[in-house]
Specification:
Structural class: alpha/beta
Radius of gyration: 23 Å
Number of strands: 12
Helix content: 25-40%
Number of domains: 2
Length: 276
């Protein structure tokens, strides 16, 4: 296996530029933030930014935890990778990752200064330190479940890169994801059950055929939640159709406003009323 490294200090834009660097070197696999990525798909791993503290995040990123390390080694063997790009904040970090994952010696190291201008690096620093934004080089739907309840934004890009094997330039559209880690220095936030219930109630009571939301129950999990709702409906409405509208409204409002993954929605019709 050929091992490459992409190095830059924290907040200088490594993940932002990772896909461009990988494409230029004809590399399909990237290790970034404790995740194994095949082009734009998460193959294995869980973001180090899901850890509760900065120290734990660093340990996860260099695979000091046995469960993360063994999972990643197994995934790399299964994928039969010929070339891989490791991202890190220093030469020591990428070497440690390569050592812990038994990848062998790093053949070539690319530095952020080789691919980004000082102005772009400063722009990335500002985004990190003033706004707490981190970029993960995969589409939002690939990483969303790992950050249930944390605000995420898609970042669409148009990359132009030159392949190492030729002088040909290529352009490609890609999507990355902006996240704010669980340990963000901008502070933590908690979305209470009451807020979820209010969002659900407001969304559902706007639907024609719903008379009143009587109760909303929530069941929380580490990476999402399940919702159960008791409804009073208007006599004569088509219940299957109404149920579909209710589910779609809840999914749209909860995922848009909170970022929380929904694993199930149960609708109970508890009463029917006639309009006067």
């Amino acid at each position: 296996m050929q091992v490459y490294a992409f190095v830059g200090k924290t907040g200088t834009g490594k993940s932002y530029n990772a896909l461009k660097v990988a494409k230029s070197l004809d590399i399909k696999y990237i290790i970034d933030d404790a995740i194994l990525i095949n082009e734009t798909k998460v193959v294995a791993g869980r973001s180090a930014k899901t850890e509760a503290s900065k120290i734990a995040s660093v340990k996860a990123a260099i695979f000091l935890y046995e469960d993360r390390r063994s999972e990643m080694i197994k995934a790399i063997k299964k994928e039969k990778i010929d070339k891989i790009l490791i991202l890190g904040t220093s030469d020591e970090m990428v070497e440690k990752i390569a050592e812990n994952l038994k990848l062998g010696k790093i053949e070539k190291t690319i530095y952020i200064e080789d691919v980004a201008s000082p102005e772009k690096i400063e722009e990335a620093r500002k985004s990190r330190y003033e706004e707490g934004k981190h970029v993960v080089p995969v589409p939002t739907f690939e990483i969303k479940k790992q950050f249930s309840g944390y605000f995420m934004d898609p970042l669409r890009m148009f990359d132009i890169f030159r392949r190492e094997s030729s002088n040909m330039y290529e352009a490609e559209s890609s999507e990355k994801t902006i996240i704010r880690p669980t340990y963000s220095y901008l502070g933590k936030f908690v979305i209470s059950d009451n807020v979820i219930k209010q969002i659900v109630t407001c969304a559902v009571e706007r639907i024609d055929g719903v008379s009143r939301v009587q109760k909303v129950f929530t069941e929380k999990y580490i990476d999402g939640m399940r919702i159960e709702i008791d409804l009073q409906i208007v006599f004569g409405v088509n219940i299957p159709t109404l149920s579909t509208h209710v589910k779609n409204a809840i999914i749209h409002e909860i995922e848009t406003m909170t970022g929380i993954n929904l694993f199930g929605i149960e609708i109970n019709i508890t009463s029917i009323v006639k309009l006067k």
